[in-house]
Amino acid sequence: FFSGQAAAAAGGTTMHIDFALPINHDIEAGFTAWQSKAALSCIDYGFHMAVTKWDQATSDAMAKLVAKGVNSFKFFMAYKGALMVNDDQLLAGFERCKELGALPMVHAENGDAVAWGQEEIFRRGIT
Asked: Which candidate in 1, 17, 29, 71 could, as Cys together with 23 as Cys, close a disulfide (CB 3.0–4.6 Å)?
């Protein structure tokens, strides 16, 4: 965190918003980990929290993070089996963001199509 921010400050940047990833799909644990990384921060910073699963616990945690200053959440439609949420989960997340006054962001790829393409490449022996 510090070295990147120091370089940014040298170039005149005064604010950094980092993509914070959950730990085992737990956004509160991810937030705590990113706060630790930012302990030596030398410019202002904020977090853009990734949502990689959807359930009541995630919905509840989003409210807690908004109360701590997180006002944007990223939803992945890519990286099937790791970070990807499905359409129903994405829409539920959008609704929750609306309720909380938070900004949703989408990593918009067709995760199913990308996974299929990856399998096809290996099936054809293109490595």
From this structure: 29
Whole-model pTM: value is: 0.86
Sequence-distant (≥ 6) Cβ neighbours of residue 68 within 8 angstroms: 31
φ, ψ at 106 (rounded to 5°): -120, 130
Please give the chain's pLDDT, 127 residues, in tens.
899 999 999 999 999 999 999 999 999 999 999 999 999 999 999 999 999 999 999 999 999 999 999 999 999 999 998 999 999 999 999 999 999 999 999 999 888 999 999 999 999 999 7
The residues pairing with 19 across neighbouring beta strands, listed in sequence order, are 48
Which of 18, 107, 15, 94 is CA-nearest to residue 62?
94
Q: Do residues 102 and 70 touch, judged by C-beta distance below 8 A?
A: yes
